[in-house]
Specification:
Layout (H helix, E strand, L loop, with lengths): L1 H28 L14 H24 L3 H28 L11 H31 L3 H29 L6
Helix pairs in contact: 1-4, 2-3, 2-5, 4-5
Amino acid sequence: MAAALDQKKSLVWIRVLSVAIPVAVAVLLGLPTKLDLGDWVYTLPHIIGAVNTLTAICLLVAFVAVKKKLIDAHKRFNSLAFILGAIFLVLYVLYHASAVSTPFGGEGIVRPIYYFLLISHIVLSIGVVPLVLLAFYYALNGMIDKHKKIVKYTFPIWFYVSVTGVTVYLMISPYYTH
């Protein structure tokens, strides 16, 4: 009975966080006045790009590890990817709450490619939050069958979000003015 109640509470928290995180990010991004945190925030896009790169690498290593039945390595690299995701979120919010968005200056065919990648990245980054939280919840609680079912969707989406984050960063980085 207690285990079922704990599971129900955990699933409620996952739902709450899955809504609260994107809403909080949207609110902070839409602040009418940017926070004055100093010029150091203009280094954040480069750090965020590195964090996304490391996240993609960790996810790929975790995937290879689980295929080779190296479960401890799989756990470590997925945990590191999760931590990097949290770091990304904090840095992303700090940057966008304090710096004006950089317009993309590319022209021609690269422009619709950039916006396709950006929009798909944003939409999937919102959708992957509950999947990642559930995948970790199932793994941490020994619900491996449920974990395996959900990561069939979670891994490719999270990996795509990480890789497109890096790609979008590389495409827009020439237009940063600081």
